[in-house]
Amino acid sequence: MKKSLLLALVAMITFSTFANGQKEDGKIVIGANIYSFADNFMNGVIKPELETYAPSKGVEIQIVDSEGQQAKLNDQVDVFITKGVDVLAINLVDPAAAQAIINKARAAKIPLILFNKEATEPGVMDSYDKVWYVGTDSAEAGIIQGQMMVKDWKANPSWDKNGDGVVQYVLLKGEPGHPDAEARTVESVKAFRDAGIEVEQLALEADPNWSTVHGNDKMAAWLTSSFGSDIELVIANNDGMAFGAITAQKAAGVRLPIYGVDALAQALTHIADGEMDGTVLNDGVNQARATVDLAINAAMGKNVTEGTNWKVQTNGTKAVRVPYVAVTKDNYMDFK
Asked: Is Signal one of the keywords UniProt gives this record (predicted)?
């Protein structure tokens, strides 16, 4: 018993010393994660913006890679809490696991900003008064992507290769169950139906990593399949998979209309080179900045939008929504 008490006392002293050491300069410390550094968008846009924007606001940010494992993220949150960070900025691996993270933050009395992956469990955001979400309207990207495709389809009758008036398409889907992947998949195709244009899905494949390799492998397989010559349109839930599909098309010597989401720099280059028809700006820069701004205010006990231009929705979601923007051959230079 005495040994247990001694160990507990040592742990308390160690924690106190470490936590105070983290804040000797008075800086707010944000404990943050990226669900997977393998994700083109998260690692290529949001992570570097977090790393540069937070210091510019006079705060420290510690970012870890959850490697696509919710259990690993749970442990990382425990470590952040033990370190005594002032606020958590968490990119969920599994949107259905938000309650576990919220419970940890609430028990430690640490404010929590969830970003980019929204909780899917009903009511979880109401279980803690110091949790907010920063992200997008999941359906909006699919709607905008669909509207671009409908406009271009109508302007290019030659895309209807067999002249049947039906869009024969293949779709590269992101992570199954991810709100963005599910909404983009539904809304992009729904736009054609809403415009009175019939569609036929030739193939759909999902990838939890949203990867370029997946896009390349699936596109290559589809082009050599029994329906390969029937494909008239390629829809990708993100730019990363679209890049792979473009590589596969080049290897096969074909050029099919293709659309992505994210407006990564490489996508703008593909549009400029005539290898990609459109993408949708997923504004990772402003998602990162809003996450940091809200985190700082939350850590200081202020209204989370104080001194910012961000607005928290009043419909009960406790969310800041960053809008999507269509990017085409007509305006891609604006996003360079």
From this structure: yes
